[in-house]
Predict the 3D structure of the following.
Amino acid sequence: MNLELDAEQTAVRQLARDFVDREIAPHVVAWDRAEAVDRSLVKKLGEVGFLGLTVAEEYGGSGGDHLAYCLVTEELGRGDSSVRGIVSVSLGLVAKTIAGWGDAEQKRRWLPGLTSGDLVGCFGLTEPGTGSDAGNLTTRAVRDGDTYVINGTKTFITNGTWADVVLLFARSTDAPGHQGVSAFLVPADAPGLARRPIHGKLGLRGQATAELAFEDVRVPADALLGTEGKGFSVAMSALAKGRMSVAAGCVGIARAALDAAVRYAGEREQFGKPIARHQLVQELLSDIAVDVDAARLLTWRVADLIDRGEPFAVESSKAKLFASEAAVRAASNALQVFGGYGYIDEYPVGKLLRDARVMTLYEGTSQIQKLLIGRALTGVSAF
């Protein structure tokens, strides 16, 4: 396997680095304090092609392979995980899923806007009482003639207050467990859909996170994505790729922690010399560096498998598990290097630690990833 990036991938990574340094890095602290990323950034992400990666050009996408997507996601994670989440959800979970499961009309209706940044998508799976147990949804979509009537509540929905379309998962039949779940594309301005922003989060403060309440929301039957009763398969296929995106973003967090810690250790002096010359500080830095490289390689393996058309779900769980836990370790070690200054939000490592912590929770907790990996190793059905 050749791990050297080709000219196109190198150019994409440099484009992403420059974008982050120019459009994101100067605003990170202000966005975190205000609990809001500048909404105009979405259009800029679309203009440089980041919201169309891996989507066919005929639908407004910018093409490219999944490794290029990982390179961009890593850089966005390095800059601000709240911004990384915008792309990972609107492109990674919504647009890619429409591209993979939608019919021609659904693709024409939604993909050009999502890939350009004119539209934003959100992924409506998690409910107040249902997180890891995605097959036990209580939101209902009842067939009424040529429409479905939807009632229920979703929570912790990234892009929830910004979204123009909700990729919604609801129980539409009486079949047991995940067999009764279907997927729908619901316009966010549909009558009966209310959105409440969620503030006061530990991390990802700039992300537009919301609770969505559906009260007799009526959508046409052609809003169904895929076939009825296959919504769980739609969700799992989206999350398998989404975990790769989270892993790549976690590599970015760990890289940012390493860069900040190395720079600070070279400037800060204690006991008559820069702390970078103290062996225990070097140990902290080396631990971060190893985690960065290991997490990146696990993530790139997933991208390679996807691009070659090979099974990748278990490898995606491994990458997400390791990279998310590694990001927490990296940010914690970096904070230790900074000492008391790490507790002040004028320095980057406190935010990195807060942002990293949620990575072990969403798109499948670390425990769920271990469950999936363990069941794959033992040949036990996952559900």
Summary: The domain at 7-120 is CATH 1.10.540.10 (Butyryl-Coa Dehydrogenase, subunit A; domain 1). The beta strands are 121-124, 140-144, 147-158, 165-171, 181-187, 193-197, 209-220, 224-225, 269-270, 273-274.
